[in-house]
Automatic annotation (TrEMBL):
<feature type="domain" description="HipA-like kinase">
    <location>
        <begin position="13"/>
        <end position="223"/>
    </location>
</feature>
<dbReference type="Pfam" id="PF20613">
    <property type="entry name" value="HipA_2"/>
</dbReference>
<dbReference type="InterPro" id="IPR046748">
    <property type="entry name" value="HipA_2"/>
</dbReference>
<protein>
    <recommendedName>
        <fullName>HipA-like kinase domain-containing protein</fullName>
    </recommendedName>
</protein>
Length: 261
């Protein structure tokens, strides 16, 4: 379960992000990149970010520390930008943040260095699992820090929860968008990556991860389920069914890679 911090100072917006995340200082004197529940996709983006980050870490992938952030809307009272002021006001309460990695740079597939084959394979398999459409050469959402790749920005993943119709059927998707993955050319160990995910992604892990989603986010995220408990159970079910679909979407990733190399 991530720890909870309190935002004490709004430092600067990160305007390259469509949801206007920001660097914020907290009561532990640390700096964090905050994703606000009052932004465009609302609580569902935070839920996707939360699930993806927790599962990535469980699979041994590198993700900056995930924390929950209590935000007082008064934090933006003196903010001259009306858009930011309204965003902070709409995000009162519990938000989500990742530890700020000072000196990190965005991964560039052209400039290199080339990623390790096992890391690239695990990342491709993981993004196919969470149906992440947002790890492309145009927008890799990968940081290079201390010569390692770190995953960020998973709010666009798990997109099935924006329309829950046929969600069980869609859990079996082969995920054709994997053909656009920025690391696909280096993903030469997909069978090994499949075995890794299969070993780590147990039902117990899914239940523990989903249990940690703040109740307020689930209540704020529109769904067809009558209770928060039923809402959580649906996420667990989708994730477990996704594990069952591993052979199909790994095969799709291998097929897409064969057309590149």
């Amino acid at each position: 379960m991530p720890r909870t911090i309190v935002a004490t100072r709004y430092v600067t917006p990160l305007r390259e992000g469509g949801s206007l995340p920001a660097i914020v200082e907290a009561d532990d004197a640390g700096l964090y990149v905050v994703k606000f529940r009052g932004a465009g996709q609302g609580a569902k983006a935070l839920i996707a970010e939360y699930i993806a980050a927790e599962l990535a870490r469980a699979a041994g992938l590198r993700v900056p520390e995930l924390v929950l952030v209590e935000l007082d809307p008064a934090l933006g009272r003196n903010e001259p930008d009306s858009e930011i002021r309204e965003l902070l006001k709409a995000s009162a309460g519990l938000n989500l943040a990742l530890d700020y990695l000072p000196g990190s740079v965005t991964f560039d597939p052209v400039a290199g260095p080339a990623p390790k084959v096992d890391v690239a394979s695990s990342l491709v398999a993981f993004d196919a699992f969470i149906t992440n459409v947002d790890r492309t050469p145009k927008n890799p959402n990968l940081l290079c820090w201390h010569r390692e790749l770190w995953l960020i920005d998973h709010g666009a993943s798990l997109y099935f929860h924006h329309a829950w119709e046929d969600w069980e059927e869609r859990s079996q998707s082969r995920f054709a968008p994997i053909k656009d993955h920025v690391l696909l050319p280096w993903a030469g160990q997909l069978p090994q990556a499949q075995a890794l995910l299969s070993a780590h992604f147990t039902r117990a892990l899914m239940e523990t991860t989903v249990a940690g989603i703040p109740e307020g986010w689930l209540k704020a995220a529109e769904s067809p389920f009558p209770t928060v408990e039923a809402h959580r159970a649906a996420y667990v079910s989708w994730l477990c069914k996704r594990v069952e679909a591993l052979p199909a979407f790994i095969e799709e990733a291998a097929r897409a890679r064969a057309q590149l190399v």
